[in-house]
Structure formats: C-alpha cells, structure tokens
C-alpha cells in the first residue's frame, strides 16, 4: 500500500495543489482505518454500521439502537428511601455538610443498563498483490461510503449505505475485470449467539445480557451477566445477490467465487417492544422482522434501493447549506487536514464539513420513536462502553438535541421528545420513592432505553456524580422549544403540556423556603464540588444556582404553555407566585455568577461542567441586552473556567460565548473543538488533556462521545442566528475569520426559516420564510425591523433591514 505523505509535504501542497470544491461534502482518506475513531459511520436512525475499509479483511461493526442490556424498570427497583430527605435537610439546616454528604449518598438505587454492540461483519479475501490508489470516503451529500483501490491491474470498489426506507445495510462489490471477486463473509458478536443457514441466508441469532455493570465500576465480579431466558433478542440476516460467479452458504460463512458484481444485504432486528415491555415474554419476533426486511429489500433492484435511500436522506439534509469565505477544500485526506488545522491552518471548508457532519449524524442516529441518540449516537463496538453509552441527563442527552430545531431537523427531535413520555412514567415512581413527592415526575443523572429515572449507584457513587434530580426540569424545556419553533398547538396541548406540568409540579413540591426565597434542598451542581475553609470538599448543599436556573426555565415555559392553551388558571397562578419567590442569581466576589448558595471556592475552578450558566444557554434568562450585569458575570465565570476542557464541554462553551455575542472567542473555542486527537479505540479517558476531534471527525471527549459534535453544530447556528419568540438576531456572534459567506435554511423560533449573505463582515441581504404567519422582528447591529407576515411568504431585506 502507498505510504502516507508526510505532513510537511502536505503543507507545501496547499499552495499549488488542485483543489476540490466544498460542495462535494466528502470526507476521504488514503488508507484503511486501524481504529474505531478513524472508521466511517453509517446509519438509518435504528441500524448502524461502522466501516473500517480494510483490504484483506474488511471490518464492519453493526449496531441496533434498541439493543441494550437489562429490561423494564420494576416496582421493586424503587424501594422507598425517601425518609433520608428530612435527615439530609436537617443536616443542611445545621450547616453540617459532612453529614449531609454522607446521607445523600444513601439516596441511590440501581445502575442504568448499557448499550450493546450487535456484532461485527468480516469480509475476508486473499489478495497477494500490492495495493495502490487506495481511497476511502464518506459522502455527506448522499449518506454513502466508498472504498476503492487497485491491485494487479484490477480496480476493486465497494459502496455502502444503510437505508431508512428499506431497513437494510447494502454493500455493492464490483471490479473492472470479470470474475475477480473472491471473498468470504463471516459474522461475530461479543454477545451470546449462534449462526445457521436459512436457505441462501446466513442468520445470526442471539441475546443481550440481562445485566451489565457500568465500565467505571472496576473490580466487580462477573460485570456482564447472561441468561438464556432473559435479555433482548437480536437477529441478523445476511444474503448475497450475484450477477455471475458462485455463492456458497454454510452455517458460518458466505463464500463468493469468481464474481464481477454482487450486492451484500444485512438485515438487523431486535425483540425490543417498548420501555415497559419484557423483551422475552412481550417482545417482538426479531427473526420474522429481519427476514421480512431482507425479503422486501432483495426483491428490489440495487439502484432502486439506493435511489430511495438518497431521496429520503436528502429530504432532510438538503434543507440547510453553508458557505464560508472562499470555501474550497485542499485535495488531501481529512485527517491530514485536521492536523494542519490544529496547527493554525485556515480551512473554512473543514469547518463547514464539521457543521454538516453534525447534521448528518443526527439524521443517521435519531429516527426511532422513543429511543433517542445515546452518548455515542448509534455506534458502539464495546460490550462495556464508556459510561454505559447511556443517556446522561445532566447535559449530554440534551446537548445531542440542541441543534435539532435550529438546524432544520425537527423530525429528528421526535425520538427524544417521545422518550420524555417514558421518563415521566418511571419518574413519578422515583419522585415518590426517593424524594417523598406525590405529584409530578423527575429524572436523575442517568437513564437508558428502559427510561430509568432514579439516582444510580447503590450507595457506591459520590453525590456529585449521582444525586442530582433536575432532569425533569431540564428535559421538559425541549418540549416547549419544539413548540416555539413549530407552533404545533396540537403537540403542545396533547403531548407537551401534560409533561411540562408534571415536571413543574415536582419542582414546586420539591422546593423549600429559606430567608424568604424558594430553594432546593438537598442540591448538587452536576459533577462539581465546593471547597470549605476547613478543607472539606463536597457536593451536597442547598439552593444551587444550576437548580434554580433550570426550575426558573421550567416554570416560565410551563406558565407560557398554560397561557397559550388557556388552561389551568389556578395552577398558572401558583407558577407565577413561585417564580416571584425563587432564589435570584447572585454575583460572587470575583465578579462571577455564583454557583453555590454561599460564595465558596470551587474544588476545581476549571471544571468541565458549567451548569449554573444554564440561564445563558440553553436557557433564555440571561442576555447582554436584558440582564447586562448577569451577562458580565457569566463571562467572568467562563474566563475563570478557562478554554481547556473536554469535547462536549467545548461544545457547550461555544454556545455560551455565542450568546454573549463574542464571535471571536466563540470561534477560538470552535477551532479548539477541532483539535486533532490521536485515536486509541476509546481506551484513554483524560479530562486534563482536554478534548477535540478524532480523524473521522467524531468528538473526542475523550473517549468518543457524540454530544460534542452536536453541541458544536448547535454553536455554528448560534453564531449566525439567535432567536426567541419576540426577536431574531442576525449574525449575532460572527467572527472576524468568517468575513464573507452565506447560509440558507436555518430556523428561528416563531416558525421562521432564515437565509443570509454577508461580505467583508457586513450583512448584504436576509430572507425570511414565514411558516406560520405572524409578527417578525429582525435585529442586526442595533437596528431592528418589525413586520407582519403571511404563512408561506418570503420576505427579503438588504443589510440595512430596509
């Protein structure tokens, strides 16, 4: 195989090379992937494939987003330990934080379950020659991957896609010399499984563990537990269709001999039938589903499958386009471009590619009702993935969906919105059993496909990493945001408002009064700790700024929903009264936004979490225009936190700096998010080193977490467009580096779609499509333009908004 050209030579090539236009939206590489973080990810929102692109052996990791360990939450999973809460509150009232910390750790239950890898497909061939002209690519424009190389005068080509319309992974193998295809297809899995022959189909059938300890619980005996009578079932059916040559199917492999053009089809299914259904006793028949999908797909031509796949995908992806400056791509592999970019090279096309890659990932990982994208989206190769590859509810699960509405992918928000309904069911039990609250619902730090809501840990996890119960308040804001963008009153009335009301009811019942204000007790600020003057460090206290910000947002939006629907006036009045009594934001002695009830020191001043800034972003309570003092305090907080942090946290800070209207600092954080990180198959967790981006553009927390991709993509939008239900802000955080450009298809609250063009840092024109009608107010550099709109009409203004 050709050796890679050294980085220094690539740098010289940037001057005189042939360039490729950005419109190709292609990520390409000149060698196969050695690590997961170099491989190409494909998905249809349920099934996923991670393509390594090997020559002698091609490795493809397979996933199904509904394949998890465990089963539904049972009543006995929630023993009543709410009697601990009065004891904790008493300790806090006495300022006895050591006792409060110790008691709070006892308010913990079962761990969340883990997202499982379905299996791995191996395609083995014996090619004794020397490889040349190797090319591996992911085309974001049509959601297909390709591997191509030459050997002994033969060009080998493989094309891959995972179809949403036809529910299969399809791989087409072709060569330019007849009868040159000879390979073997095999399946393997880390789960319990058997392979067999079903006619001309190789079938793998197996089951997931009934229990899996999180990867951070070291030293546990038998951490992955299987039982043939328990656990979600899975089936993988594999078939090859050929035009010539010979196909041999055994109970362990499919062998292709002397073929010229063949298509490999892979159909995946599980027995998962809902968060509250036993996957064995009440499960779906994965064998029937996989067989039906395969039969229907193979009855069609390859071209019709591909065309249907591309049409479906592009109906979402093509809604938004972005061009920055000259926007041309150097004709070198993406991983080499990323390395040069990390050293300060200008590559606006790489930035656009990253933005569109985030949109690609959401389309590819979030199309299954009630099963949102997890910590790794859809793609996982480990049986004990980092943090169980679950739904971490104190930032990460929500960050996955910050860009769904604004980046014009509202449909991809639905799996998360419907998942909230599941959380509310189990969250009612958690509210009562753990917190003694008989109305409303909540969710704590971790969740999974079974919608677990209790604080996890069995008393083995410190409160800073478990004892946080504001997940209901936070997730409910997504329901209102969907309405704010779409104006869908039926959704608000029938689905959103009852859930929002339940989250607000929990907050009202949970708060206590102190010094004339409503506060939470006990409270934690996610994963951070304070430091007292006597040297004690802890997480348990009362009246945390993060809690109050999330409650304020939840109550404010629930109040607005009640007014919009003209329902529950008495409840609305109680919300208004509570909002008046909430503990207000306070500014600390350093000029920062105070995180703790008292102005204590942080145990880790540069901590990756910044939950007390929730009101700046994703909330709407702090803005430079309406609350300048608080905005300055938020800025000071960010300066103290620093810029060096993990991948997902960089994604959050990008959005926070954008809300402060500081385009250049936002851009600095964006460039740091695109810092090259060496792949290691997820073996290194190094918060101090900080995060960045792996060669395949997936976020390096490290290890891989997809929330950084989604948070970064949301940040792009916030730099170019911000909105509330009254105002749209045009280019509010435009950095000097993006002096010229154009964007189309971004969405604003109030039901507007916005397109803009700017040159030399100044707005040339803006177009607004009104999807709902109603009043619109555009703001740009201190100038504003208010006007009435009609549904379906486009309004165009120049840079002066005249």
Structure description:
The protein is of the alpha+beta class. The protein has three domains: 31-68 and 118-317, Distorted Sandwich (Beta-galactosidase, Chain A, domain 5), CATH 2.70.98; 75-112 and 373-622, Alpha/alpha barrel (Glycosyltransferase), CATH 1.50.10; 741-798. 30% of the residues lie in helices and 24% in strands. It contains 18 helices and 38 strands. A hairpin with a 5-residue loop joins strand 4 and strand 5. Helix 13 (545-565) packs antiparallel against helix 14 and helix 16 packs parallel to helix 18 (707-720). It is globular, with a radius of gyration of 27 Å. It starts with 6 loop residues before the first helix and ends with a strand.
Topology:
Blueprint: H1 7-16, E1 19-21, E2 26-29, E3 40-43, E4 47-51, E5 57-64, H2 84-93, H3 97-104, E6 119-124, E7 132-139, E8 144-151, E9 154-162, E10 169-175, E11 181-188, E12 192-198, E13 201-207, E14 211-212, E15 224-225, E16 233-242, E17 246-249, E18 253-259, E19 261-270, H4 286-298, H5 302-317, E20 321-324, E21 328-330, H6 334-342, H7 348-365, E22 391-392, H8 396-399, H9 403-406, H10 414-435, E23 446-447, H11 471-486, H12 489-510, E24 512-514, E25 517-519, E26 530-531, E27 537-538, H13 545-565, H14 569-581, E28 601-602, H15 628-641, H16 647-659, H17 663-673, E29 692-693, E30 699-700, H18 707-720, E31 721-723, E32 728-730, E33 741-748, E34 752-759, E35 762-770, E36 774-780, E37 783-789, E38 794-798
Helix pairs in contact: 2-3, 7-18, 10-11, 10-12, 11-12, 11-13, 12-13, 13-14, 16-17, 16-18, 17-18
